Amino acid sequence: MSPPPLPPPLAPRSAGIAEYVKHAFLYRWNMLLFLGASAAAVLSPWPDAVLPLVGAAELLYLGGLVASSKFRDAIDAKAYQDARSPQQQGKTQHGKEAPRSIQEILGTLPPEARRRFEQVRARCLEMRAIASGVRGRTGNAAEPGQELSTPALDRLLWVFLRLLVSQDALSRFLNRTNIEEIRARLAETKARFEKAAGGDERIVRSLQDSMAAQEQRIQNYERSQNNFEYVRVELDRIEAKIQVIAESSVNRQDPDFLSSQIDSVTESMQSTEKAISELQQITGLVDEMQEPPAILESDLGRVVES
Fold this sequence. Notes:
This protein is mainly alpha-helical.
C-alpha cells in the first residue's frame, strides 16, 4: 500500500550550540565540581599549574556532553516547550475543554486522518447516548458498565490518535526519501570501490564508509516501510476494539463481561504501546501525560478547518 499524499513539512527545531553549552555548564553537579575544583586549585601551592588543568577538564566535559545526541535532543525538546505560548501550555479543566496538547496534535494531522479520529470518537459518544436512552437514566449515577468503559475508551482513543501521528510521520519520511536514487548511489560507490582496490588507502576507506552509510539508509527506509504497514494494520485493529467496547454498553452487557473485554484489550495493547514508544524518535511526539487524557469527556471544538 502506497503512503498517502505528502502534507506540508514541519519546521525544524534546534536549540543551538550556545544553549547546549549553557545547559551543560549550568548542570548542578557540574557547577558543584567545577567551583569546588577551582577553589581547591586557588588554595593549592601551585594554582598557576592546577587551574589550567581544571579548565581543560571542564572543556573536555562540555565537549563530550554537547556531542551526545541524546543530550541535544533533550535540550531541543525543552527549548521547544519553553517557546510555546502560555495559551498553548495552559491546562484546561476536566470536562470543559480538551487538553491543549490534544487539539495541537489533531491540528497537525492531515484532514483525512483527523476526520477518521473524529468519526471514531463520535461513534463512541453516539453509542453512549444510545445506551443511556436504553437504560432510561434520569440523572442518577453512571452504570457500572459505563464506569468501566469510559477510561478504556479514552485509552484506546489516545493510542489510536498516537498511531495516526506515527502513520503521518512515516508517510512523510517515505515520500521524501528517493530509495531508487540511494540504491543507484550505492551501486556507483561499489563500482568505484572495486576500481580503487589496492590504491590510495584514504580513498578506499572513504568509499567503504560511503557504502556503509548508503546501506544504512536503505535499511532505515525498509524498516520504515514495515513500520508503516504495521501501524496501518494496528489502526484497523484498535478501531475495531473501540467499536466493540462502545457497542457492548448498548447491549446491556454485564460488568464482568465488559471488564473481561477491557482486560483482553489492555493485554493486547502492550506491544502497541512499545511500538509507539520506539516510533517517537521519528514522530517527535513525546507523551507529556502519564495517563490518557479524558478524550470522551472533553470538548474538542473545531480544531483546524479541512
